[in-house]
Amino acid sequence: MDYGTFRGIVTVGMLILFIGIYAWAYSSRRKKSFDEAANLVFADEQPKQKDKDQEKSTHE
To answer: N or C: which end of the chain has fewer CB within 10 A?
Structure first.
């Protein structure tokens, strides 16, 4: 096996890996868990109305 054949095999392997990751990421079965992960950033935030009420009570 020469160097060109090895590079071809590695290229095909990377293409298959890319297609597999793409299919996994855009699978409809994964949408719910990805949406939950995307909203984790906002999980500890309080609603805006409560923040305004708290500011009023601390300034008075």
So the answer is: C
pTM: 0.56
Instruction: Print pLDDT tens along the chain (60 aa).
Output: 899 999 999 999 999 999 999 999 888 888 888 889 888 888 887 766 655 556 666 665
Q: Please say whether the beta carbons of 30 and 24 come within 8 A.
A: yes
Rounded (10°) CA dihedral 15, 25, 28, 13: 20
Report which residue type is found at 13. G
What's the structural domain count of the chain? 1
